[in-house]
Specification:
- This protein is α/β, with parallel strands linked by helices.
- Helices cover 37% and strands 24% of the residues.
- The protein has 2 domains: 139 residues, NAD(P)-binding Rossmann-like Domain (Rossmann fold, 3-Layer(aba) Sandwich), CATH 3.40.50; 171 residues, Dihydrodipicolinate Reductase, domain 2, CATH 3.30.360.
- The strands form 3 sheets. Strands 12-11-7-10-9-8-15 form a 7-stranded mixed β-sheet.
- β11 and β12 form a beta hairpin.
């Protein structure tokens, strides 16, 4: 295979982001993009050189020329699309989470394994150069055995109520990235979760049964401990930090700013605010995860973020929800679903 032909399912914000990244990769052609609201799609698709626009994603799955699909549709559609795409022999890139139910996600992994297609999950932070450097440093043994992991993940402003209604809540739409990063940088599975949560920002979020502020304490299989703090509103920008403390030292990444210039005057010390949100902060990471998926399809290289990784993060999110409700630590109920 010299060139990968892609179909994109879902042309919302994230679908368009992936499309605009993919069109710059020489080894890839986006043949078709689908979305229910096709009338809003044609002009943009033409502008970036996508040949075909359709309201029915089955047009993509039934096209024998298309090698792989990007699933960027709402989460409640993922399972059925994964099932149909796998049976059609298409390799799959699926935005997180794979589903709102760990049982459905296990079903998706089973189908993927049976059909032999590839499934990459969209945990883009693994492809951010800063998080990857932390991961590599720990893996190389530079800081010794991990003992403590601290992750800060705070959005610049809360999402609208309409988003909360269908997002799965803070643990699924936000903290799930941090659960994946915790596993990624330590190289160890989470075995127990304890959560404290509150509504301190927007009463409307509480009215919908969700929280906007959380602390998650993790126990890892290798004995390490972790803590994640999440907030829906950091007035100073998009706050994304991680530290791994080990027996030989520590490694940490700091926030990104538009520039790292610091101005010193008699009135004080000033520097720029943090980058505003995930599309800005993780712009390069989205491109890198796309490159990695394409390389895997072309050359059969190992996936950096497999379907199993999606399931593990969902299991942690599920335990976090249970812990919030019971106010008790919750052990992860884990079964092995290996992709081969």
């Amino acid at each position: 295979m010299e060139k990968v032909k892609i179909g994109i399912i879902g042309a919302g914000r994230i679908g368009r982001l992936h499309a605009e990244n993919i069109v710059h990769i020489p080894q890839v052609e986006i043949k078709t993009i689908s979305d229910l609201f096709v009338e809003n799609l044609q002009e943009w698709a033409n502008k970036i050189g996508i040949q075909n626009v359709t309201s029915d994603y089955n047009d993509i799955l039934n096209d024998s020329e298309i090698d792989a699909v990007f699933i960027c549709s709402p989460t409640n559609t993922h399972l059925s699309i994964i099932r149909d795409a796998a049976k059609a022999g298409k390799h799959i890139f699926c935005e997180k989470p794979i589903s709102f139910s760990t049982e459905e996600t296990k079903e998706a992994l089973k189908i993927v394994k049976e059909t032999g297609v590839k499934l990459q999950v969209g945990f883009n932070r693994r492809f951010d150069k800063h998080f990857k450097k932390v991961h590599d440093t720990v893996k190389e043994g530079v800081v010794g055995e991990p003992q403590l992991v601290k992750i800060t993940s705070r959005d610049p402003e809360p999402p609208p109520a309409e988003y909360i209604k269908s997002s799965g809540g803070l643990f699924v739409d936000m903290a799930i990235h941090d659960y994946d990063i915790a596993r990624y940088v330590t190289g160890s599975e989470v075995v127990e979760v304890y959560v404290q949560g509150a509504n301190l920002i927007d009463p409307a979020i509480g009215d919908l049964g969700d929280i906007d502020t959380a602390l998650t304490i993790l126990k890892f299989e290798n004995g390490a401990l972790g803590v994640i703090d999440n907030s829906r509103k950091a007035v100073y920008g998009y706050d994304q930090r991680v530290e791994v403390f080990g027996s030989k030292g520590s490694v940490a990444n700091q926030n990104e700013q538009p520039t790292n210039v610091v101005v010193n005057t008699v009135d004080g010390i000033y520097q720029e605010k943090l980058k505003n949100f995930f599309l800005d902060r993780y712009k390069d990471a989205y491109l890198e995860e796309t490159h990695a998926f394409i390389q895997s399809v072309l050359y059969d290289t190992p996936l950096v973020c497999k379907g199993e990784d999606g399931l593990e993060a969902e299991l942690i999110a599920e335990a976090a929800k249970a812990s919030l409700l019971t106010k008790q630590p919750v052990k992860i109920k884990r079964e092995e679903y290996k992709l081969v």
